[in-house]
Write a structure and sequence with these properties.
With about 200 residues, the chain is mainly α. The protein has a domain of about 100 residues. Helix content is about 55%, strand content about 5%. The chain is built from nine helices and five strands. It has a three-stranded parallel beta sheet with strand order 2-1-3, with helices on one face. It has a two-stranded parallel ribbon with strand order 4-5.
Length: about 200
């Protein structure tokens, strides 16, 4: 990654600098394809497989690597209490019942969509370079995760946001779902796709 111009944002800017890259900000997602095509940037990180497939970024940046920077997506539906209270009890019950099943439904849909997107990207010329678990640890070595998390928490808290409380709740949920999760890691899915 040394000296490559990589489109990034937020805390990923500092992370890419640790790898010797030159992070570039300010390029909107819908301009990434053209930015790579014109040579303004050499690549993009982080970027989801879904976005890369839908925006066809693999056509101009065909070398795709799972960086091991994955995050848990706490997908869900947000409804204000005012709106919730306006819903009839039968609709509230349906939403509550679906909430219990949503996690597994989401994981199944996510995994199937990931496999589909990677397959289609490869058919379109993308070359998938999955990291081995050993290499993934090596790539993550320059990162002091706790220090990185703490600096982000402090930055958000300085703006008056309840960052520490939200982060603690986030970690609590991650740990709870890790115990029951059937999802494979993105790295595992990349390795599976590359093996085909």
């Amino acid at each position: 990654m040394k000296d490559l111009k990589i489109r990034a944002y937020g805390a990923y800017m500092d992370l890419l600098k640790k790898y010797g890259a030159n992070p570039v900000s300010g390029i909107p997602p819908l301009e990434i394809y053209e930015g790579i095509q014109r040579g303004l940037i050499d690549g993009v990180a982080p970027f989801t497989v879904s976005s890369g497939y839908q925006m066809k970024v693999y056509e101009v940046a065909p070398y795709v690597t799972d960086m091991g920077w994955g995050v848990y997506c706490l997908a869900g539906l947000g409804i204000s209490m005012k709106t919730w209270n306006k819903l009839p009890p039968d609709i509230q019950n349906i939403i509550s019942e679906l909430r219990a099943r949503f996690y597994e439904m989401y994981l199944d849909a996510y995994t199937n969509q990931f496999r589909h997107n990677v397959t289609q990207m490869m058919k379109g010329g993308a070359k998938i370079f999955p990291l081995t678990p050993e290499r993934e640890k090596e790539w993550l070595r320059p990162i002091n995760v706790q220090q990185w998390q703490e600096s982000n928490i402090k930055a958000l808290a300085s703006k008056g946001l309840p960052a520490r409380e939200l982060f603690s709740k986030y970690i609590e949920k991650v740990k709870a779902y890790e115990k029951i999760s059937t999802i494979e890691s993105a790295g595992d899915l990349f390795r599976e796709a590359a093996a085909k």
